[in-house]
Design goal:
Blueprint: E1 2-10, E2 23-30, E3 36-45, E4 54-59, H1 61-67, E5 75-80
Parallel strand pairs: 3-5
Antiparallel strand pairs: 1-2, 1-4, 2-3, 4-5
Protein name: Ethanolamine utilization protein EutN/carboxysome structural protein Ccml
InterPro entries: EutN_CcmL, EutN_CcmL_sf
Main location: other
Length: 87
């Protein structure tokens, strides 16, 4: 799982049937000092997060477990983070 900051929305007019009803978001992983690190990522938003929020994201088989085994999703938002401590 990753802790990420939501950067924006990703609009797709055509997407897989298994993703209908879910929005896509752009985000960036956060490091221990809560700064952005790495490349921009896209995830399926199943909970309705907003731009600027810190979210918990799962990848791979964990992501498919949320949406169903037939889903093509590789990253899914599974929670909104209120606080976290890296000490």
């Amino acid at each position: 799982m990753y802790i990420c900051k939501v950067q924006g929305k990703c609009v797709s007019t055509i997407k897989d049937e298994h993703l209908k009803g879910c929005s896509l978001i752009t985000m960036q992983r956060l490091n221990k000092t809560k700064g952005p690190v790495g490349e921009m990522l896209v995830a399926v938003d199943t909970i309705g997060c907003s731009v600027g929020e810190t979210v918990l994201v799962t990848r791979g088989s964990g992501a498919r477990a949320v949406l169903g085994a037939e889903s093509p999703a590789d990253m899914v938002v599974v929670g909104i983070v209120d606080t976290y401590d890296c000490n």
